[in-house]
User: What shape does this take?
Amino acid sequence: MTTDYSLICDALSKHGYIVLTDFIDADLTQQLYKHVTALPETVFNTAKVGRQQSVQQLETVRNDRTVWLSETHPIEQTYLDALDALKIQLNRHLFLGLHDFEAHFAHYPPGHFYRRHVDAFRGQSNRVVSSLFYLNPDWSEQDEGQLVLYDFTSDKPLQIVQPRFGNTVLFLSEQFPHEVLPAKRDRYSIAGWFRTDKVV
Ligand code: OGA
Ligand code: MN
Assistant: This one.
């Protein structure tokens, strides 16, 4: 499969976001799913918001569990390579000046959520484009756990995305408040950010 980068870049420049169903190929999706579900629960950390929030404050905002992807793991590396190829195209077509990409696996146990938030505040962050990739086989609407994208002008959802196996979402990090609704099943995703600085 060849990726239609110009379609992705056009959508990002026109609408600021895009939902893709086959950006990552099926084999890699399967491997990532097997890998993330085999990770021991002890490697996942309670996710952080901002700098100095207590765990108690935090859990009213989000209570997913996360673990960073690393280049030292071959399957994780393959995913990071695919997003790096996208980064080159985003820079070529949209002149975004992206330097680096960072990503974590996120596990939302049943009932867990991430309240409405933005991934980057204008002028305060190096995160420019957000990416989400879903690793949930046989997900149905009744399982809930949707990603809901908003714009700043309205409380009405702009786009509701089912976290279905193989779905990818890309959006401009500063422009779209979004939330993860509580799910009825374990929900796995990879959340990533293209940045204008280097990840240390
Ligand atoms: C995030 C996030 C959404 C999702 O981690 O910042 O918004 O659908 N995740 O997992
Ligand atoms: Mn987010």
